């Protein structure tokens, strides 16, 4: 009973923090603007670019621009104020929409390319700065809960944003949709001004005068922290599924000869994700972060194996419910490990590196998924990916005792 009262007091303390509300409100509004823009992009490309290959090249160009500036983004995030980096990247995001409005007015795909490049460059700076700022906003004991709620807000904005975009595209012109997207980014920019947190806290791992400034200096830190290295590699397991998610959904729809199943899949996965992220705080009281990561990775592998029965609607929905709940538990736990284990002096470079790694792996998985769908079909590909996920989880589980021992050794000097 006493522990429960302590948890309730801790939760109330976090929710009284105005920075928490600013971050969550900003995430929701920015998410709405992002998904309005994404659906608008698809509408514009469908009208002006007949080739699917050229569409993929256009989208890839923006992603490559984000990857190219990743090292610079990480270095500047560690050297300068995270709030300043977020404000500048937010301003660039607002300006980028102007080029998309020009693209709509002129019908030029080249102006859209400028828009995508600026948007991805902005994201390459903004998201590492945001991830590095979260540990400065709340205490370490509240990180897991805030990460879960933050991801739930992001998922909710995706669900509402995509639904709203579909309705708005019928009711208003395309340029009006982008104006609404720009308005959301302006609101986010305004909210960011009100963030207040102490950015002068030094990590006890790094002594004064020894702070490193090079992007490559983050790699020795990762190697010295086995739990971080393990978690970083384990994050590739959900990406194996997420990278080709849309292609898989399209194939399931064709396999079942049902358009409605797409909506059911997205809804089931989104709701299950929100449930996992909502419950992860309570789950963490009973299980260690290591057990949560391994169990989630294992369930992700099983959900992929279940898609061997993708011709059965009920089993398909169950597979996506299992996947959604698993990643809803996995990502907040992984984010909390990164935020607490990696020294704060390296947060900008680390999260920028992770952002780059995710983007590159996403592209590889997307191409691999497209190839395997043509070569072996959805059901056989699902078995291959599921088996790969389970084998990767099993390998790291067998090494987990040594990793936990190393993690305890890392913690002992801090206590």
From TrEMBL:
Give its localization: Cell membrane
The source's superkingdom equals: Bacteria
InterPro entries of this UniProt entry?
A: MFS, MFS_dom, MFS_trans_sf
Q: Which residues form a coiled coil?
A: none
Residues annotated as domain Major facilitator superfamily (MFS) profile: 19-404
* A GO term from the CC aspect: plasma membrane
Where would you find the membrane-spanning parts of this chain?
20-41, 53-73, 85-104, 110-134, 155-172, 178-197, 218-243, 263-280, 292-310, 316-338, 359-376, 382-398
Membrane topology of this protein: Multi-pass membrane protein
Q: Does the entry feature the keyword Transferase, yes or no? A: no
Keywords on record: Cell membrane, Membrane, Transmembrane, Transmembrane helix, Transport
Where is it mostly found? membrane
MF terms per GO, please?
transmembrane transporter activity
Which Pfam family, an example, fits this chain? MFS_1
Is rRNA-binding one of the keywords UniProt gives this record?
A: no
Q: By its UniProt entry, which PANTHER family does this protein fall under?
A: MACROLIDE-EFFLUX PROTEIN (PTHR43266), TRANSPORTER, PUTATIVE-RELATED (PTHR43266:SF7)
What name does this protein carry?
Transporter
Q: Which organism was this protein described from? A: Mesobacillus boroniphilus JCM 21738
